[in-house]
Write a structure and sequence with these properties.
The protein is mainly α. The chain has one domain. It contains 2 helices and no strands. The protein is elongated, with a radius of gyration of 21 Å.
């Protein structure tokens, strides 16, 4: 008879540093985008709309 091995998940405390790092990185990137004056200004080089349009034209989807 075959015995099945149980999958044991790692302790939540082991993954806590990774989750904290990813959370802080995500929040930092969001704040950086919101405080960038070029991000929402249509005539600026760093405007998000230009990036989205360029992606839409080159994407295979």
């Amino acid at each position: 008879m075959k015995t099945q091995q149980k999958f044991t998940s790692p302790s939540p405390w082991i993954l806590l540093p990774l989750r904290l790092f990813l959370g802080v990185t995500f929040i930092y990137a969001g704040i950086q985008k919101l405080t960038d004056p070029q991000f929402f200004q249509p005539g600026a080089v760093g405007y998000i709309g230009k990036q989205i349009i360029a992606y839409a034209h080159t994407s295979l989807l």
